[in-house]
Write a structure and sequence with these properties.
single chain, alpha/beta, Rossmann fold
Length: 266
């Protein structure tokens, strides 16, 4: 059976799962947040948080699932990401007798729901952690609701220049802080943006959240574009990608950092 987070299907488990694989980095984080890290026996590539996750066998990547490796680990439950899993992969996992739970976390509001989906499937109570997350986001919204709205360019990569479009938790993060992504209207999820378009829309602020490993590198790259308003007025805001690029509970720390940075350049 497939457990779809959006459809609210309930799985009747004979017993709580004891061996789990988490097949996306943010799902690995959420599994540990749910308190079932000791049950996780395999993870996806780039599952590097918390540190204990780095020691676990990697059984999936952007190229797909390593079904043979998964089979050796004998999991009874697999958590997969709706945006990356293919139907045939689900079928192969099921053919091994593994229950599959599909987790969705495209928007900020879906993150605590994803945690609750994991908690329900693993038979653990995560309500307190989900409530703390929602409360912290609500407080941030309240704090910055009255601030002047900023038009921002959100850079997640620089060669080629790439942003986030549409309904997405990173664009939601900007909204929480009283800003908007000037390229949120582009098609796709991670569109490449021509420099001509950046100059045409001339955002007030540039937010770096991915391509640079540190603030200095991020700022150095953008100072090569001195005629842009954001550069000219020193409105460059850097947020460490680990805290803002994954839809895990850690994102609230990244949003707090983002809000503070945007407030400094208003």
């Amino acid at each position: 059976m497939i457990f779809l987070a959006a459809s609210l299907v309930t799985l009747a488990l004979a017993a709580p799962p004891s061996r789990v694989v988490t097949l996306a980095p943010f799902i690995t984080e959420l599994a540990f947040d749910a308190g079932i890290g000791d049950r996780v026996v395999g993870v996806s590539a780039y599952s590097d948080y918390p540190p204990a996750a780095r020691e676990l066998p990697q059984v999936s990547s952007a190229n797909g699932f390593a079904i043979e490796k998964i089979a050796v680990l004998r999991p009874d439950l697999a958590f997969v990401w709706r945006d990356s899993v293919r139907p045939e992969e689900i079928e192969r996992l099921q053919s091994l007798g593994i229950r599959v739970v599909v987790v969705s976390a495209r928007t900020l509001d879906e993150i605590p729901h994803a945690l609750e989906t994991i908690g329900e499937a693993a038979a653990v109570d995560v309500s307190a952690r989900a409530r703390v997350f929602r409360d912290r986001i609500a407080r941030l919204r309240g704090t910055y609701a009255g601030r002047r709205r900023l038009d921002a360019f959100l850079e997640i990569w620089n060669k080629p220049l790439t942003t986030i479009a549409g309904r997405h938790y990173m664009n939601d993060a900007l909204e929480v802080c009283g800003a908007r992504n000037v390229f949120a209207d582009l098609p796709g999820v991670t569109p490449v943006v021509p420099w001509e378009s950046v100059y045409a829309r001339d955002p007030e602020v540039v937010v770096g959240a991915g391509s640079a490993g540190d603030r200095a590198t991020f700022e150095t790259g953008w100072r090569e574009r001195p005629t842009l308003s954001a550069v000219k007025n020193n409105r460059l805001v850097y947020v460490h990608p680990d805290t803002i690029q994954r839809p895990s509970l850690r994102i609230v720390e990244g949003i707090a950092e983002l809000c503070e940075g945007l407030d400094r350049v208003r």
